[in-house]
Amino acid sequence: MFNKAALVVSALLSVAIAQQVGTQEAERHPSLTIQQCSAGGSCTTQTRSVVLDSNWRWLHTTSGYTNCYTGNTWNTSLCSSPSTCASNCALDGAKYSETYGITTSGNALTLKFVTSSQQKNIGSRVYLLENESSYQMFSLKNQEFTFDVDVSKLPCGLNGALYFVEMDKDGGMGKYSTNKAGAKYGTGYCDAQCPHDIKFINGEANILGWTASPNDTNAGTGQYGACCSEMDIWEANSISSAYTPHVCTSTGLTRCQGTDCGDGDQRYESICDKDGCDFNSWRQGDQSFYGPGKTVNTNSKFTVVTQFITTDGTANGALKEIRRIYVQNGKVIQNSYSTFDGLTQYNSISDEFCNAQKNLFDDNHSFEERGGMRKMGDVFSKGMVLVLSLWDDHAVNMLWLDSDYPTDADPSKPGISRGPCSTDSGKPEDVEANSPDATVIYSNIKYGPLNSTYRAS
Fold this sequence. Notes:
mainly beta, 1,4-Beta-D-Glucan Cellobiohydrolase I, Chain A, 17-stranded mixed beta sheet, 7 helices, globular, cellulose degradation, EC 3.2.1.-, signal, polysaccharide degradation, ConA-like_dom_sf
C-alpha cells in the first residue's frame, strides 16, 4: 500500500491488542469456505474461518471490566510499562456482526464500513484461519489466487483491500511467552509500512512514546513499528484499483524504531519498501479500463485472478512476474497495458516493468534495492497470511489510490494521476458521514496451479 503507515483505522472507543485472554465474550470465528484447485480445474472445498484483528478488540483488566485503553489513550495505572500492560490486560472475544459489521455466508465475506451498536465502529481487518489457533499460510509461486469481489458500494476515499503479509502462523504466540492470545484472537499483524498504531508488538504493549492521533479519536502511534513484506493483491474502490508487491530486507515480523521504520523524511531509509511497485490501470494511462461502466465494470461483481510466474515454471524457481486477469459475465479480460512511451509493452509486474515505471515516474527504486521480485518470491516460499479489510485513510484521504497525488504536483505528469476522484475527496469525516453503509463483498476464493481457478463461459 502506498502509505499504510497512515492506515490508522478507527475502531471501537475501547479497543486494543491484548496478549492475555478475556472471558467476557466467547470468541466464535465466522465460517468461510474456500477452494483448492488442481490442474484441469477440479476444485476441493475447504471449510475455514476468519478472525478479527486484535487491534479492534476490547482490552480490559484481567480481573474485571476496567479498560486498559480508551479512545486513543492508555490507562497508565494498568499499563505503566510494556510488560506490565501485557500481564494486566486481557483481549476479549468479538461480536462480529453486531459490533463490527462482519458477516459470512458460504463462500462470501461481507465487511460493512460503519456499524453502530452500543458504540460506533469504523472499518475492519480480518485474517483467514486454517484452524482455531493457526492462520492459513499461502505459498503461491507458480500458482494463482482468485476471488470474486463487489466494490459497487465503495466510493472515493475507501479501500477494500485483500492482501498477504509475512505474519507468523500462530500470531507470534510461540515466540513470545507473554502472548497468550495468538492467532485465535488476531495477533501479530505487520506490513511494509511498519505501522506504529499496532498496540502490542512481540508480546509487549507499544506504549512507549504513545501519541494520540490528532484527527482520529480512536487511534495513536507508539515508539515501535511492525515491519514485514506484503503483497497487495487488491486495493480498490469502485473508482480505482491497484496491485502492488512490497518487500523488506528483514525476515518475518520485525519490530523497528526510528530510521529502520522509515519515519518522516527517512521513508527511503526503512528496512521495507513502502512505495512498492504498483500497477494501477488509470495511473498507467488507461482511463477507460476500470470503473463504473468501463471494461471492468465496477457496477457489478467480477473475478480477480493473480498469477505468480517463476523463471523455471516450478514452485522452486525465482518469481519473475505477477500477472492480472479479470473475468466478468463469463468473459476473460486481460489486464490493460500502459499507454506511456517506454511502458507500452507492460500489462503485468516484473523487475523490468518496475524499473521502467520508476524511471518514467521519477520514483524511488526502493523495491529493486530491497530485493525486488526474487525477494517477494522468497517470502511466499515461507508462506504468507491472507488479510481482508475495509478502511479509510486519516493521513492522505486515499488520494494515492484514486486521485492526483502528491496534490502539489502537475497531474499531467505521468504517474501523478491515479484516478478521477477530486483532491478534496476522501476525508474520513466526510466518507463516514456520507457513506456509512458502504460495503465490500469478497467471495469464491480459490487457489491452485496456473489457469486452474477460472474459466470463460
